[in-house]
Design goal:
It is a single chain. The chain has 278 residues and is mainly α. It has helices at residues 2-6, 10-35, 37-40, 58-65, 67-100, 106-113, 115-118, 121-132, 141-164, 169-177, 182-211, 214-219, 227-236, 242-277. Helix 5 (67-100) packs antiparallel against helix 11, helix 5 (67-100) crosses helix 13 (227-236) and helix 11 packs antiparallel against helix 14. The protein starts with a helix and ends with a helix.
């Protein structure tokens, strides 16, 4: 029976080959424009042009020696981790509350919480500026952290709620029946089981904050610009291969994030496969 299922007709084989060809073409269409920037970061020329005139690391040296680029990187490395922590805590707490609660309007509340993923960032940026500027809170690094957390929290909420769909609530009840307090149950039972979803959401929140430029344009001051904002300004005002070096570093960072997410996905699958056996 299994052998009969593996036999394919000629038309099925043709469609399978066409499917793979289409998938490869789409992948190339998406990936090649990104990879084109990598060789330019090693070009000896002062212009972003092909063919390459020679190999040089001068643009990476310029990136790490430039006060403007370093300040942008410093602010990014301050804002992104802090925003990730806030988004992870709020998103995980909201996911646990919505998963356990049953009340009218739950769907509406969920839609409201994930609305930063749907509403264009430019609208959120304008709204944040108009609301906080009269209070004198604009041009503030703390406000930038909070708004980046607002953008990242929905990703944590969605991933944690998806992980909770496979969570056995009887495990927490069993621990509570043995006298474990709620915080201990969460720390030793619930959190280890939903950790892949929490970490995945945190990585998405970190990537969102690390890459955000529109919100920064509205509410950040002259000394609070982040790395994406420096890149945006460089494209508009003074284009040079240093931006290619910065982009290459961001590509490497994105690849590391994707590999981490894949590892978390496989770990979550192993946990789900092991739970029925336990």
């Amino acid at each position: 029976m299994a052998q009969e299922n593996t036999v394919r007709t000629p038309s099925e084989r043709i469609w399978r080959v066409l499917h793979w060809l289409l998938a490869i073409l789409v992948l190339l269409f998406l990936i090649v424009p990104v990879l084109v920037i990598v060789p330019l970061s090693f070009n000896d020329s002062s212009f972003l042009v092909y063919p390459l005139s020679g190999f040089s690391l001068r643009w990476y040296e310029n990136f790490f020696q430039s006060p403007e680029w370093m300040l942008g990187l410093k602010n990014t490395l301050i804002v992104a981790p802090l925003a990730t922590v806030i988004a992870t805590v709020l998103g995980t707490a909201a996911a646990l509350a919505l998963y356990r609660a049953r009340f009218p309007g739950k769907g509406l509340l969920l839609a409201l919480l994930i609305s930063p993923m749907v509403v264009p960032v430019v609208i959120l940026g304008v709204a944040a500026y108009l609301f906080f500027a009269p209070m004198g809170l604009a041009n503030n690094l703390g406000l930038l952290v909070v708004m980046h957390a607002v953008l990242g929290a929905p990703f944590v909420l969605i991933t944690v709620m998806a992980t909770l769909e496979g969570y056995d609530t009887n495990l927490g009840r069993a621990a509570a029946s043995l006298g474990a307090p709620p915080l201990y149950v969460f720390r030793r039972v619930t959190l280890p089981l939903i950790a892949p979803g929490v970490i995945s959401g945190a990585l998405f929140a970190f990537g969102t904050s690390f890459d955000e430029v529109v919100m920064t344009l509205f509410i950040a001051g002259p000394d609070q610009y982040t790395l994406p904002r420096v890149m945006f300004s460089g494209i508009r005002e003074n284009l040079n291969p240093t931006i290619a070096a910065a982009a290459t570093l961001l590509i490497l960072f994105s690849v590391a994030m994707l590999l981490t997410l894949e590892w978390l996905r496989r770990r979550a699958e192993k946990l789900r496969m092991a739970m029925p056996q336990a």
